[in-house]
Design brief:
3 domains, about 40% strand, Immunoglobulin-like, six-stranded mixed beta sheet, elongated, about 5% helix, mainly beta
Amino acid sequence: MGPNNNTYDHFIAEVRNLAGVTLEVFDVRWDSWRQSTWMQQQNIDLTKYAGQTIRLAFRGRTNTNANITTFWVDDAQLVTCKLGDIWCQDTPSDTGLEPDPATAAQPMWTSQDIWVRNLNDAGTTHQNPEFGQPNFIHVKIRNRGTTTVQNAPVKVYVADASTGLSWPTQWTYVGEAFVVSLAPAGTTTVVVPWTPAGTGHYCIVARIDTAQDPMTNLETTNIDWNTRYNNNICWKNVNVVNLVLWAGGHDLVNARFIFRNVAEVARPLRLTFGETASTHTHPFLARGRITVVLDDKLAQRWQETGGIAKGVEQIDDRTFALNDPAEAFLDITLEAGEEFPVTLTFQDLATGNVDTRRTLTYTIHAVQHDLETREEVGGVAYEITASPPVF
């Protein structure tokens, strides 16, 4: 500093855009600062630039005097933080942790925070989508953070019902809706219109995609892993099987899904069928019948693998009846990328002796496992609605 309190040398720290334009000067030091005030940690809040690509620039400026001032920048570190924590629930046990120990043994594809309505109404009961007309995908969003989140996009994707799905190649983008404003501890529902491209059942994934609350863990091709390790993602692969005759149902319903090897090499896979424990005391198989029909070539693959099965009764070369409501499986090795249709037939045998005043829901899961990695690849759930039998 000169005799007139002029400063000669400066250190300037600033925020610039990628064109080099200065957006903000966040610190200035000069040559008369004492060492004790130079060597200190400075925290800079950059949250106002969320969603932008910026450049942090540090520059020194000196005059022509021979007494040059030296400037140092040491241990510059960028610490990211979530402005909010908006999420959707995977199961009723889910608390939003990533991953959540409470859901470790639970399937990820049954989120109650996603449901389809055939009409744009206020209903909250999930319906199978109707082909040839607009349907409406509802997604419930929650905020477990401490900051209000605004204008956050929720993107929705669909895929044909399958126990093996690779992200993102086998998913189709449907559309998005925005969470306009969601305060801490609040909930809201967004709706995305959707006209299915074909008949059949579908899987649905919702992703909260915002710089205000980025994915905690980098997404992989494994949709099951992505959902477990990011509360910004929820997944529904649930199909309704209506066996209530007096409510427009049928005593026999067929449903189809794709059994697929998503790996780039041949994999030994296990296709497991089981009923949720909540109805094991009176399982669906005590009052009905479920058969599994394999594609001809898939049945051949099963035979070539060794014909290993448990909890099923083989009816013919490609048809099996489920016998064990807790666990039934077929072990099949598929080549890289191979996929085959599997048809399930649900038949109610108790239609003549039921309580027509009420309905009961049974849930059957078809789950695909990799026998070498012991990973759960994915699954499909079937919610069977039927009148309770009279015992």
